[in-house]
Amino acid sequence: MLTPRRVSQVLLAAAVLLAGLLGGVVPGQAATVRPAAADAVDPANDPCYVLIQVRPGVFEYVNICPDPDENDDGGDGGSGGGGPRCDLTEEPYDEFCLGTKACRADIPSPLPEDEWPEHTRPGPDHIFTFVQCRVPGQEEPYERWRWIEPYEGALPGLGWQALGRLQTPAFTMRFEPAGMTYVGADTRFLLDGLGDGEIIGSVAGPLQATGTLSHVEIDPGDGSDTIDCDPDLRSRACEHVYLEMSHDQTAEDFDGNPGFAAQARLVYDVTFTMGGAEVNLPGVPDSLESPWNGTVVPVGEIQALVRTR
Questions:
Q1: Where do the segments described as Disordered lie (predicted)?
Q2: Which one in 20, 121, 154, 208 has a CA-CA gap of 20 to 30 Å to 230?
Q3: What is the CATH number of the domain that holds 285?
Q4: DSSP character for 66?
């Protein structure tokens, strides 16, 4: 027979075990598991349901199987070129059809991609996001987290996401003559760490962005205009002539010499492809600029002695 103290110990042990099973929540925040809203369904044992963390500390069983009336192609929901099977005339449910349901979706997905139930993904072009639909003959909207293949109108939103996945290289800038240049002389700028001039981002749904180095912008730091230079500054230098000394500048090189704070940035032409074919995305930038990076350029003056004969 269990004493009251023994009962308390058993309950405490059970609580600790449950907390361990629900790990991964924010410290001090209780985890909540919300059951799926379906009658006579055991989500834990139904292959249509997956458990995801829809927001910190809140887990939900999500039905990822399409409804029987859906032709889940992410497009007009029809077949045979007969046009949409749903009414797309009422905002905000005017983006795409799922069978006879008129729908909208959060594009890009508000759920981080590393939290998507990847093992249930129908295909590489699908994204996992929150969908809301208007169902004919029903007042309550249809709302569900689910996989969709992005419809045509969603591509610009995914284009911004694909653009954000392009990473520009961490380059360094140097100049010649090394150490110090001089008023009136040709100062040559070169960059290291440019790679092969092409950057490729990871896919965002069906889209992938590629950047091709177009040119390099150089600000000499002396108040003159920015220079557009050849993209290959690994071997071909970009030249500038300084017209004044840098003795009164606040920037200093590693040896403590005052100099002009010259800087450069890379400018890329960006293209987007879907299934290997290039696509045009209105409203999405077709160029990308790297952060500025630079070096301090001390500028001295060569003293000349002029003699008369």
A1: 65-86
A2: 208
A3: 2.60.40
A4: P
